[in-house]
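Supplementary Text 2. Reproducibility record for the structural model of the 370-residue chain.

All settings were left at their defaults, and a single model was retained for analysis rather than an ensemble. We include the record here because the model underlies the residue-level annotations in Supplementary Table 4.
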Amino acid sequence: MKRGFWGLVLGLLLGSAWANPSRYAEQFEYAWRLVEEYYWDDGHHGVDWVAVGERYRARLPEVRDWRELDRLIEEMYGELRDDHSTYLSPDEARLFLSGAQCLPLPYPEAWDQPSPRESPGSSPEAPDRGNPASAPSSEEPRETAFAAPQVSLRGGAVIVRLSNLIDPEAFSTLASAIRLYEAKSFRKGSIKGYILDLRGNPGGLALRMAEVAGLFFRGVPWRIVSRRLGTLPQPTQPAFGRASTQKPLVVLIDGRVNSAAEGLAGALKDADRAFLVGQRTAGNTEVLIPYCFPDGAVAMVAAGVLAPLRGATWEGRGVEPDLPVQGAEAQLEAALRYLDGPPSKRSSLPAWIEKIRVGQRFQVELGVVR
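Retained model, structure tokens:
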């Protein structure tokens, strides 16, 4: 009788002690599988992902809490050495993604049980399965890891600096600035054009890229080459209709422009919608897909490579400026001079519209004009 009683107690204690380790293992396996099954390069950049999983899986018994598990998975993702894929704890996801939309973890069984970080007596803020990364509403200013978008006016040019393409404010601030200055320009005719400063922009989400591009032109300028889904056309958002402005646009770029920011600059250039000033971009155009876990953690997985709708990808080669200029102030001055130039040197409308105006013959093929 005593043996049975103490056996029951021991079993309960062991069950309690191993409850979290089992959840740690589940979270780890989901994170590992995302890269194994969804990473764009099935060779994982030459990394033996199975061996990596075995090595880090062996360290699970050392994990004592969720914070240590987060760091273990983040370290494992670092083995890919692609400067894109990473794993964010729930707190980091709220800070870096700032409520940006993400995809639910593609393993239905993960959503059939309570959030693994819940504990008796706690009341965690459970993420919405449709948008697990969304931050709770609050009247306090939200915290973000990125510098806020900046809007200024100089010499009749509206200058908008975007530090990233993750924060929803990157799009909303630019859209608001265009609405404001288009209205002022209509009344006074004082706005010559826009300067979009992407220098140092690490990129972000394909959705944000498509939204920003859609303010200046519409169409299907990109394709995403992925491992699981093949080649997918990527339209602007929205894809049809009249853009928010037709005024001249200059984009400032440098070697620290990456990912979706490169795709944005490249698409604006290829559509003859913008004049690029600065230096060649980084040539690092993997497409990040954020996968959200039920507890609010987010795995950022490079699930594809961004490329023009036609032609070679920008991966490894970057986007070349129309006017190479070194030095931050010199680049801005060159952009301002371009907007001050005669109309013959700057087109306020995409090239295909200008061709219609002068009666030139043109051909439209898959949304790309030759």
